[in-house]
Specification:
The structure holds 3 protein chains of 3 kinds.
Chain A (H helix, E strand, L loop, with lengths): L2 E4 L3 E4 L4 E5 L11 H9 L7 E7 L7 E7 L5 E6 L8
Antiparallel strand pairs in A: 1-2, 3-4, 4-5, 5-6
Chain B lengths: L17 E6 L2 E6 L4 H7 L6 E2 L6 E2 L12 E6 L2 E7 L9 E4 L38 H11 L14 E13 L3 H12 L4 E4 L14 E3 L4 H14 L3 E4 L2 E7 L3 E7 L12 E13 L3 E3 L12 E3 H11 L6 E6 L2 H13 L2 E7 L6 H9 L4 E2 L2 E7 L6 E6 L5 E5 L2 E5 L2 E3 L2 H5 L4 E4 L4 E4 L6 E3 L9 H18 L12 E3 L20 E3 L4 E2 H9 L5 H8 L11 H13 L3 H4 L11 E2 H5 L16 H6 L3 E5 L2 E6 L7 H14 L1 E5 L4 E6 L3 H8 L12 E7 L5 E11 L2 E6 L4 H15 L6 E4 L4 E7 L3 H6 L16 E6 L2 E6 L8 E7 L3 H12 L4 E3 L2 H10 L47 E8 L11 E4 L11 E9 L4 E9 L8 E6 L4 E8 L14
Parallel strand pairs in B: 1-7, 8-9, 8-14, 9-11, 14-27, 16-23, 17-18, 17-23, 18-19, 34-44
Antiparallel strand pairs in B: 1-2, 3-4, 5-6, 5-7, 10-28, 12-13, 13-14, 15-24, 20-21, 21-22, 25-26, 29-30, 32-33, 34-40, 35-38, 35-39, 36-37, 37-38, 40-43, 41-42, 42-43, 45-48, 45-50, 46-47, 46-49, 47-48, 49-50
Helix pairs in contact in B: 3-4, 3-9, 5-6, 6-7, 10-11, 10-12, 16-21
Chain C lengths: L4 H9 L17 E7 L3 H14 L4 E4 L15 E2 L6 H21 L10 E5 L2 H16 L5 E3 L1 H7 L15 E5 L3 E2 L2 H14 L3 E3 L4 E7 L2 E7 L2 E10 L5 H7 L6 E11 L9 E4 L4 E5 L5 E11 L7 H14 L7 E13 L5 E4 L5 E5 L9 H14 L13 H4 L16
Parallel strand pairs in C: 1-2, 1-11, 2-8, 4-13, 11-18
Antiparallel strand pairs in C: 3-7, 4-6, 5-6, 9-10, 10-11, 12-15, 12-16, 13-14, 14-15, 17-18
Helix pairs in contact in C: 2-6, 2-9, 3-9
């Protein structure tokens, strides 16, 4: 069980969180081409190593956070609040 | 007690009291403090089990959790536990023990005959036979299954209480030997919060009495003083009889505590599982003695030398009268001396080396023990117990036999580095030790003593102290620098036998004692190319028993390496995974069962429904009234009555479980515009609108009515099961996609009690209870108002899921029961009834309304559900483009339609497949499926909603609703899904 | 040497010294007509069917470690064909039919045990759902039946059917032809049969790169040297993305952890495979006596093969809810597979957009049971350069049109499937 340090609540077991999706992927524009849209929807980098991803602190503060985690070792390098980010569109 | 020493003053574990227990129905006595193993040995009971495959007689090999053979079924206080290691069961009065895997008795097991035919059952024999005739496998399998297995599953659930709990500490020390005690004290004195877990019933048991002096003390006295020092530290917690079972991500550790002690009168849990987060882990788990390979090394009377000695040291039990010690290092010779001092006659020490250390030789000579150098024990003789040992000279190949009733094996030591391996770091092979040791240190993980390959008391104490200090330093503490104890004593190098002895009878030389894997099996596997370590393990089942190869694995690797002519280091080892020793399922579960595992969510009016005789149904974790049968009514009659009563009068149904999300802020409308496929911008204050939400891939995700309470304040409703998903869908968009501080989204589901008052008389019933103007002009369909209902502050929404005139009344949840009861009291004279979700479900099917999870099954687009025209073309929203991709548009989509049987007396089969009207009998490709089927009391007919390929173009045509599970097909007509009031006159009344 | 009880007896009398290698360790050749990357069940089955059905014998199976060492070795050994969507229903039914004759065909006892897979229903809605699925199965030509509570009690006496349970069992369905098989044996059986047909099985041979020429694959680079190949098939579930990346392709696949565990062995206790959606757990008993218990994904992508204890707690709680008698039994061993999860929960068996390159992957929960048909269809696709009807829908291209095969109807997130 991993320990994820919520920027709002402090270190909490991963069972309090729910994994969302890869972070930093951007979102398709309203006039995106079909291939852009389907690549966004379905294709994944699936790296063996460091991965930026969104988790929601479901059984805590309810906030979405961005976690940088190694998919091979489960080491976590950084967790940050998303609310401070710029828009992705 | 024949095998107990007369003088028990040194027997560390024993108390005075006598304890009575039974084994296979026969009554025995032991002493308080005994384990079952020590008590059986004390009673000269050596044969305690039959082996898994060949049903060979088996005894007690070891004294700890590595025991592969002495597995018993224990019954105690109503708990029956199969496959329990005799070495780890504390003796209790009234304990009932049974041997396993034998019939009719342990002594005369008819399956023992299998041993004679063992040549026909080599490793993997079952892959090569039982193949014909085709179809016969179930016959063979039944027999094989009966032969396999060890103990019986209990017939009743274990009534004992098990517990699991969470803990946090700075430093976890696994192991309470010299290294562990030292580590715990070093960390504890530095101020760290320490937990020390010792698998055995007591710390310090592994310290040998005469091995050395520590600060002038005997080792045991030193250990006792260490324990007292630790007990004096308030920041140290000591857990005895506790195994560190697994190390997981980020130093999450599981520990199993057997028979935890509680203060006070609380009933004692049988076991406790600790879920611990440790900042630092110190592994000080010692080593397991390595068995020696020789023929019949599985006979009762063949034991690990350290175990023989420990039974004598701790329990005063002599496991034999005349012993042969088979060894390959000085430690084994010294154990022989200790056994002799206990009064066991040593027939010979057989050493595979040419010589031993001079002082060791002197110690042997002093006791008159015969030392046979450059030789191996190559066989034990005897049928059910050892009667002698065959000794072979390495140089001449000559063998001779020595009488004995005990062979003590001292084949070197294997570090218990499992916990390190749990961190998924590779173990490294140490050639001098002939064993695997931890490789690079893992972060926040330290190893000390024998488990790290550092043998000897001085090394253990030094390593433990350093590890404890390092762990404390890593926690940011100032390290206590108290001087290390001074150890005076001689350490001797540890080593396994050099190579595999020649002249072994491989067929009866056991490598894995629990699974009956012999050297011959390894030879066969290698010959057949199952020569990778994992292939060997899987083909022969080496190391796959309940002991998980703690004793056998290393010998197995040595044999394999020898056969392949490579070094063990080149083979690698199999992966050690948690748990270190098997964990009782009930302990894993702890208190987490029934309602504690899946809590029951009860709505505010739960008790009122209960009093009304509700039949409950589970909706996720919620309990919802399904219907309220009257005496003598069948389920269907109750539902029909409720439906007709609502359609002709009025009824109330509790809809509190529907999700409610409060959305406020200047950006609220923008959020709604982006998550709903239909527009909300034009929605006036005081009105609601039905909205459909899509997933990113364009499929319908959720639906519900959202009310505009003010310019910037909305209340969204969601389906019961999805409020969390919808809430997180919204918050994710706000956090990641359109961030801004101007919208607040809150799940307020549990803050409100909601019930729908529906039926043509709904207005009449409500009118007498509210100050809100209910006239259709003031409160039209989809209107919303606030005021008093039954004297309570309420929100009133004119929305409907039944197709009738309907008001959803929302009050604060603490007023829910009051509202429900007032409504019924007030409305009963007007014919108001209460109805459940099943009746509501019938009405929504009659009205052709879809439900997420049934009709909207995650593969349906809005267009498939007939909602294509709702989709806005003027705005961008989630799923807008994806729902128009070629894969989800065009011909052949399954579309939502209604279905009526051609013959109204027929009912549509449950979950029927839709096939062509002229489909032949038997398999025929479905063109659709029934999503919901109900009996409509209103139409007096079975009706259904279905998803049918191009269904809307097939309107009024006939199909077959095929229910092969029920063995029938029903001709049905495809109709509009709205079965009643297609014009919405009732709804808008 | 043909395996039989006579061969066993003969060899027993001669000290088992005459058994040949089950498969050989050939020195790699420089050129192969087909190179299959991945020596798991699927890769080995593909090689076998290439040789057996299509006469393509100049085939190498390259295995990074030891054959059958990936998900073939880490699953719950369940074989069933009770899928709702027609492409899945037909594909898995074909696989089940192959299983039914496989022990004899391979002359290797796979211990395929058609003991029946039972799905429990805990609510009327679940009964509806399974009726929908099993009616559809039957119409598609697969077997399946509803079970009354009485039948259920008789088949699974240890099951807790008390109405007082937190999620009481209200019914069940059974696919009687479904069951379990000995997982390792599948890899070994196919390896032995493929080897006998001339296929080269090369272990400890990791592919480090693909050789490309003009947009087509021409060979592979490995830790044992370079081989040229006219066609290269990838069957490395768990690591598909890694291999596809060598050809510059991104896949609709994430790698996830799927855990399972076994109890200590006990005498016969459970004759069927019992699965409960409400408790997210499936349980069966091996011939050796261990209860095999599986559950859901850990929920986040991972290559660690090191699962979370929290999932073990869930699985345990689920099993004990169904079988309270197992409380005092013990969890003996657990493991985590790294599974390929596609975005619709269905596999890919297809030509890739690079000439000469083919993919068998994305197996999600279904890889083990699919082994025979996966290899059968993949071999067909490689040999004919075109899919068989059975895997025509399992394209990569379906994702570029949103034409998903979404058995669970869940969104584009593996954790949901």
């Amino acid at each position: 069980m991993m320990l994820i340090t919520c920027p709002f609540c402090g270190p909490r077991a991963d069972t309090e969180y729910v994994y969302g999706a890869a972070a930093g992927q951007g979102y398709p524009a309203p006039d995106a081409q079909q291939h852009e849209l389907t690549e966004y929807l379905f294709l994944r980098d699936n790296p063996k190593g460091w991965h930026r991803e969104l988790w929601v602190h479901r059984h805590g503060c309810g906030q979405w956070v961005e976690v940088e985690r190694n998919t091979l070792t489960h080491e976590i390098r950084q967790v940050q609040a998303l609310l401070q980010h710029e828009g992705k569109e | 007690m024949m095998a107990r020493k007369a003088d028990l003053s040194d027997a560390a574990m024993l108390a005075e009291a006598t304890v009575t227990f039974t084994f296979d129905g026969k009554t025995f006595t032991g002493r308080a403090g005994d384990t079952v193993a020590s008590a059986l040995l004390a009673n000269d009971v050596h044969m305690v089990a039959r082996s898994f495959k060949y049903h060979r007689p088996r005894g007690i090999i070891s004294i700890g959790s590595e025991e592969p053979c002495a597995l018993l079924t224990v019954t105690e206080n109503g708990t029956t536990e199969p496959n329990t290691r005799a070495t780890q069961i504390p003796l209790q009065d009234g304990l009932q023990l049974r041997s396993q895997n034998r019939w009719p008795s342990l002594g005369t097991d008819v399956f023992g005959v299998l041993n004679r035919f063992s040549a026909f059952f080599p490793a993997g024999f079952y892959y090569k036979t039982f193949m014909g005739p085709k179809g016969a496998w179930p016959f063979y399998e039944r027999i094989i299954r009966r032969m396999a297995g060890l103990g019986q599953a209990p017939e009743m659930p274990d009534p004992a209480r098990y517990e699991s709990n969470f803990a946090h500490c700075d430093v976890l020390v696994a192991g309470g030997g010299a290294a562990g005690l030292s580590a715990a004290l070093a960390a504890g004195r530095s101020g760290a919060r320490v937990m020390l877990a010792e698998e055995q019933d007591h710390t310090g048991l592994g310290l040998l009495p005469e091995s050395a002096t520590i600060d002038g003390c005997a080792p045991r006295d030193w250990a006792a003083a260490m324990l007292r020092a630790l007990q004096d530290l308030p920041n140290v917690r000591i857990l005895q009889a506790t195994t560190v079972a697994g190390v997981y991500d980020h130093n999450f550790v599981t520990l199993t505590e057997r028979r935890p002690l509680l203060n006070g009168d609380a009933p004692q849990p049988r076991q406790r599982l600790w879920k611990l987060r440790a900042r630092e882990i110190v592994m000080a788990t010692g080593a397991a003695e390595r068995p020696v390979l020789f023929a019949n090394n599985d006979l009762p009377g063949v034991m690990l030398s350290s175990a023989v000695r420990a039974y004598a040291d701790r329990y005063g039990v002599l496991a034999g009268k005349q012993a042969v010690v088979a060894t390959s290092h000085d430690g084994g010779c010294l154990t022989a001396c200790a056994l002799a001092d206990h009064g066991i006659s040593i027939g010979a020490v057989v050493d595979s080396r040419a010589t031993c250390a001079p002082d060791v030789a002197a110690a042997l000579a002093k006791r008159g023990i015969g030392y046979i150098a450059s030789s191996d024990v190559v066989a034990a003789t005897g049928r059910k117990h050892v009667t002698g040992a065959e000794i072979r000279d390495r140089a001449t190949g000559q063998t001779h036999r020595v009488d004995c009733d005990l062979v003590a094996m001292a084949g070197g030591w294997s570090p218990n580095a499992h916990l390190y391996a749990h961190t998924r770091r590779p173990l490294e092979y140490d050639r001098t030790l002939g064993a695997f040791v931890p490789g690079n240190e893992a972060p926040n993980f330290h190893s000390a003593g024998a488990c790290a390959g550092k043998f000897g008391l001085a090394a253990a104490i030094a390593g433990g102290t350093e590890a404890g200090q390092a762990a404390a330093a890593s926690c940011g503490l100032a390290v206590d620098q108290t001087e290390r104890p001074r150890v005076i004593g001689q350490d001797y190098p540890v080593a396994p036998p050099d190579g595999i002895p020649a002249g072994l009878r491989e067929k009866s030389t056991f490598v894995d004692l629990q699974n009956d894997v012999t050297m011959a099996d390894i030879r066969l596997a290698t010959r057949e190319n199952y020569a990778a370590v994992e292939h060997l393990k899987r083909y022969t089942t080496l190391g796959m028993g309940t002991d998980q190869g703690k004793l056998g694995n290393l010998n197995g690797l040595a044999v394999l390496a020898d056969l392949r002519g490579v070094d063990v280091a080149q083979l690698g080892t199999t992966t050690f995974r948690p748990p270190y020793t098997p964990i009782t399922f009930a302990a894993v579960q702890g208190q987490d069962h029934g309602e504690a595992h899946h809590p029951v969510r009860r709505g505010p009016a739960h008790d009122a429904h209960e009093r009304l005789g509700a039949v409950w149904t589970n909706a996720g974790l919620w309990k919802r009234p399904q219907f309220y049968p009257r005496p003598g009514e069948t389920d269907l009659e109750a539902v029909n009555r409720e439906v007709l009563a609502v359609r002709s009068g009025a009824g109330i149904v509790d809809v509190s479980t529907l999700g409610k999300i409060d959305i406020q802020g200047p950006g609220a409308i923008e959020l709604l515009e982006r998550v709903y496929m239909n527009g909300f911008r034009s929605l006036p204050v005081g009105k609601g609108r039905y909205g459909v939400m899509l997933r990113e891939d364009g499929m319908v995700f959720d639906d519900g009515v959202t009310m505009r309470l003010s310019e910037t304040h909305f209340l969204m409703s969601t389906t019961t099961g999805q409020v969390q998903q919808v809430h997180e869908h919204l918050t994710r968009q706000l956090a990641d996609r359109w961030p801004g501080p101007d919208v607040f989204v809150t799940d307020v589901t549990e803050n409100w009690f909601s019930c729908a008052l529906a039926g043509p008389k709904a207005r009449e019933v409500l009118a007498g209870l509210t100050d809100i103007d209910l006239s259709p002009d003031a409160l039209p369909f989809m209107g919303c108002a606030q005021g008093k209902v039954a004297g309570l502050d309420a929100r009133l929404f004119r929305i409907s899921f039944s197709g009738e005139l309907s008001y959803e009344i929302n009050v604060s949840s603490d007023c829910g029961a009051a509202l429900w009861n007032r409504l019924l009291d007030h409305g009963a004279p007007m014919g108001l009834i209460h109805y459940g979700v099943e009746s509501m479900g019938v009405m929504r099917v009659e009205k052709g309304l879809f439900v997420v999870g049934r009709e909207a099954d995650g593969r349906m687009t809005a267009d498939d559900l007939g909602l294509g025209r709702m989709a806005s073309r003027k705005k961008d929203y989630i799923g807008a483009q994806a729902q128009r991709l070629p894969g989800v548009t065009g011909a052949g989509r399954r579309q939502l339609v209604g279905l009526r049987p051609v013959d109204a007396a027929q009912t549509i089969p449950r979950g029927a497949s839709i096939i062509a009207a002229d489909a032949p009998d038997g398999p025929a490709p479905p063109i659709g499926h029934v999503t919901s089927q109900v009996f409509s009391p209103h139409l007096k007919s079975s009706i259904a909603l279905a998803a049918i390929e191009d269904g809307r173009a097939r309107m009024d045509t006939q199909v077959l609703a095929a229910g092969p599970l029920e063995g029938r097909r029903v001709a049905a007509t495809i109709v509009d899904p709205v079965f009643i009031d297609p014009q919405g006159e009732r709804l808008h009344a | 040497m043909r395996y039989s009880v006579w061969a066993l007896a003969r060899n027993a009398l001669s000290g088992h010294r005459a058994w040949p290698m089950a498969w050989k360790n050939p020195a790699p050749k420089k050129h192969y007509d087909v190179v299959i990357i991945g020596g798991g069940g699927h890769g080995l089955a593909t090689a076998y069917y290439l040789a057996k059905r299509h006469g393509v014998t100049n085939v190498a199976v390259l295995e990074k470690g030891w054959i059958g060492g990936g998900n073939t070795a880490r699953n719950t050994t369940i074989v069933r064909a009770n899928y709702f969507l027609p492409p899945n229903s037909h594909f898995y039914e074909h696989s089940l039919k192959l299983w039914e004759g496989l022990t004899q065909e391979l002359n290797f006892n796979l211990m395929f045990s058609q003991r029946g897979v039972i799905n429990l229903c805990h609510s009327p809605a679940e009964l509806d759902g399974f009726a929908r699925r099993y009616n559809s199965n039957r119409q598609n030509g697969t077997d399946g039946d509803m079970l009354s509570m009485d039948e259920l009690r008789k088949l699974v006496p240890a099951l807790d059917v008390s109405p007082a349970a937190r999620f009481p069992v209200v019914g069940g369905v059974i696919q009687r032809r479904a069951g379990t098989a000995r997982h390792d044996a599948v890899a070994w059986g196919y390896a032995r049969a493929a080897d006998a047909l001339g296929v080269d099985i090369i272990q400890n041979c990791e592919v480090t790169g693909l050789r490309m020429d003009g947009g087509a694959v021409t060979g592979v680079e490995t830790t044992k040297g370079e081989f040229s190949a006219a066609k290269v098939g990838i069957a490395v579930a768990g690591h598909s993305g890694h291999l596809a990346e060598m050809a510059g392709l991104r896949l609709p696949i994430e790698t996830h952890l799927l855990q399972a565990m076994v109890s200590e062995p006990i005498k016969p206790f459970l004759d069927h495979v019992v699965s409960s959606g409400a408790h997210h757990v499936y349980v069966s008993q091996t011939d050796k006596g261990e209860l095999v218990i599986g559950g859901q994904l850990d929920g986040y992508n991972s290559f660690s093969q090191r699962g979370s204890f929290a999932r073990i707690e869930d699985i345990t709680a689920g099993m004990l809810a169904l079988f309270p008698q197992t409380r005092s039994l013990r969890l003996m061993r657990k493991w985590a597979g790294a599974v390929d999860m596609t975005m619709d929960g269905s596999p890919i068996i297809a030509k890739l957009p690079v000439d000469g390159l083919y993919l068998n992957g994305g197996w999600c929960y279904g890889g083990f049971k699919a082994t025979p048909a996966g290899g059968w269809c993949f071999a067909h696709t490689i040999a004919k350069d075109a899919p068989h009807d059975l895997n025509r829908a399992y394209t990569l291209e379906r994702f570029s049109r949103n034409a998903l095969i979404n058995e669970r109807g869940a969104g584009n997130r593996p954790g949901l499937h």
